[in-house]
Amino acid sequence: MTPADTRPLVAVLFGGRSPEHSVSCVTAAGVLAAIDPAQYRALAIGITQDGTWRLVEDWQDMHFDAAAMPEVADDGTAVIPPIAATGAPLLHRDAGGAVTELGAVDVYFPMLHGPFGEDGTIQGFFELSGTPYVGSGVYASAASMDKHFMKIVLRAAGLEVCPWERVTDREWQADPAAVTERVTGLGFPVFVKPARAGSSVGVSKVADAPGLAAAFAEAFAHDHKVIVEPMVTGREIECGVLGSIHREPARASELGEITVVGDHEFYDFEAKYLDGDAVVLSCPADLDSEVADRVRAASVRAFEAFDCTGLARVDTFVTPAGEVVINEINTLPGMTPSSMFPRMWEASGVDYPSVVAELIRTALEDVPAAAPGISA
Fold first, then answer.
1. Exposure winner among 45, 132, 339, 345, fewest CB in 10 A?
2. For residue 280, what is the enclosing H or E element?
3. What are the Cα distances from residue 134, in Å, to 137, 141, 295?
4. Nearest-5° angle of CA 205, CA 208, CA 213?
5. Integer angstrom CA distances of residue 228 from 158, 179, 185, 302
6. pLDDT tens for residues 106-154?
7. What is the pLDDT confidence band of residue 168, given thresholds at 50, 70 and 90?
8. Quick count: other Cβ atoms within 10 Å of Cβ 48?
9. Strands, DSSP E only, in 20-153?
């Protein structure tokens, strides 16, 4: 009789209903390759653009290619997750309709960027199913994903943020002149961003008022709400944070710096993922030690302000005067082996597989004895 496999089952989720679908696929490939098979069983579950879950066997082939970005395509099969918190197994339906069991998931590892993955929605499902998961909870995920509310929380925590104006599509359609007047008060150039998107999707740099219409059209294609920010003169410095709510205090990594070169005006999607010569990523960043300590301290404060757990990447601007301005907090940062988050931890003495192992361990251990309102 074959002994039962007692290794915890880790289900890595990627793809999804987001403009960042392809980025998620590449991120997940890095995570899957780093999971120690001696400790865990890994299950690669891709989510199609329409939300269907399916097993993905060729995840090793997922990489950035401008001519053929990776995608989770529908192949007629499906993975069916349980919703009830009963420890029921995942089910697999093959193309012919036959259903088999895949086993009960011990921990979900979501590498879903953007809407329906980073915004609290999938975290709500994990909570409903009573399954541990890597990363922050529903509120932290939702509030940090929305750039408007993110800034409100950060400012309430006493952290410096860039000034902004929130604009809805209804406001723009009803009175574009009034919106233009508000935005002009920020001073040009400005950046127009969808409130709930990442990877610089839908972001435009606008030099003057006549350019706002096209920028709003692009941003509103991704969200009904956008934020407008004035350009901040400063160095783009990032910091990785690891920690948990119940056990491990948050700690900050070595810092990384992004310098955009070439023809790109800012760190847009193409510069991030498709043009390898567009940016210089420096890690550790060459910063005065006192300034670097303030960046790390602000990053930990931001992590704690949102009640984050697991991981986050905090992006800041360091002005010529040494002021630290937080640009955003990302609760599910890119985790390709070349992404800034694992590079910063590598520079801190924690290699990529160790980061992945810590995140899984935190998810498995950092679980309250009972859910709120339920007797243990």
1. 132
2. strand 279-282
3. 9, 12, 25
4. 75
5. 21, 10, 11, 21
6. 999 999 988 899 999 999 999 999 999 999 999 999 999 999 999 999 9
7. very high
8. 18
9. 41-47, 53-55, 78-80, 90-93, 99-103, 107-110
pTM strictly above 0.70: yes
Output the CA torsion 227→231→233→235 (10° steps): 50
Map residue 269 onto helix, strand or coil: helix
CA distance 113 to 334: 8
Give the residue carrying structure tokens 């955009």: 260
The answer to whether residues 241 and 314 touch, using CB atoms and an 8 Å cutoff, is: yes
Crossing angle of helices 147-156 and 138-145, in 10° steps, is: 110
Asked whether 266 and 205 are in contact (CB, 8 A), the reply is yes
Please state, in angstroms and rounded to a whole number, the distance separating the CA atoms of residues 340 and 211: 32
Burial level of 180, CB count in 10 A (0-12/13-18/19+)? middle
